[in-house]
Amino acid sequence: MTMPLNANTTARDAGFQNVQYYRKRIQYSDGVLTWKFKIPAGSIILAPISGVDVQTVFNFGTNNRVQIGDASNPSKYGLNVSLAALGFAPMAVAVGHKVTVDTDIVFTVDNSGTAATTGDAELVLAYIPAN
After folding, report:
1. Structure pTM?
2. Which of the four, 5, 12, 66, 85, has the lowest number of CB atoms within 10 Å?
């Protein structure tokens, strides 16, 4: 299931020279595994301050991680970002982070095995629009 946070809207640009961001709380019991954040053409993703902040570790049976990417590559910006350790886990893939068109950045929880009984985190996507 996909949950777009800004469906049917243009990519967000506040019109000021500042860092903009999306933030979304996720929990083990959400039932939603994918979230999309649309950023405007020309934006630069700030990878060191984008990623997942885990407040309570996730305890799915096998995988406890998030993939961060776009429609062309689901792990383009973050491969196997851990949900199994407390603290902030930034995007870690060394690729260009400037988008040329309005782009949906997709966070996908990658879990398997038994159902989780714990897990609470914040997804964070920080970017600078081309203004």
Report:
1. 0.84
2. 85
